[in-house]
Amino acid sequence: MRIIDVDRQNVAKMGFFCKMSQKKCDGYQRKLKCLESRFSEGLKIKMLDLSQGGRGFIEYIPGKFAWRPVNADGYMFIHCLWVVGASRGKGYAEILLDGKLLSYRYPIKKDLVPLLDRRKRT
Fold first, then answer.
1. What are the Cα distances from residue 9, in Å, to 14, 22, 38, 75?
2. Share in percent of the chain as helix, strand, coil (round to 5)
3. How many domains does the chain have?
4. Do the beta carbons of residue 74 and residue 39 sit within 8 Å?
């Protein structure tokens, strides 16, 4: 499965997985604008290739720029990791979490920080 890097130059074309079927809706457009402004802070989005049937992505950023209320300076903060549908159970989440794939724009002194919601872990 090919992994696609989504960045400021291609996010409008590639999308960011959430609400991709509703690209004209206000919520999608607001998130697009927000993401475009966060790429300069080191935001990374990696998606499974939709053309190969992949349905999943990871979104992460240096911890000091996390938009959740955490003290994570020196860590990478994973905002979202999601693999759904026929892509589940095939090891794609593990591939998205692979340290070689998580290329850092800034030197990270510590590790990754995941924030889990027990209701969405299955």
1. 10, 20, 13, 25
2. 35, 20, 45
3. 1
4. no
Q: SS3 for 80-96, per residue?
A: EEEECHHHCCCCHHHHH
CB distance 70 to 77 below 8 Å: yes
Helix (H, G, I), strand (E, B) or coil at 104: coil
CATH number of the domain encompassing residue 107: 3.40.630.30
Q: What is the pTM for the complete model shown?
A: 0.76
Range of the domain at 100: 3-120
pLDDT per residue as tens, the chain (122 positions): 888 899 989 888 877 766 666 777 888 888 888 888 899 999 999 988 877 888 889 988 888 898 888 887 888 888 888 898 888 888 888 888 875 555 554 455 566 555 566 665 55
| Token pair belonging to 82 | 């999601």
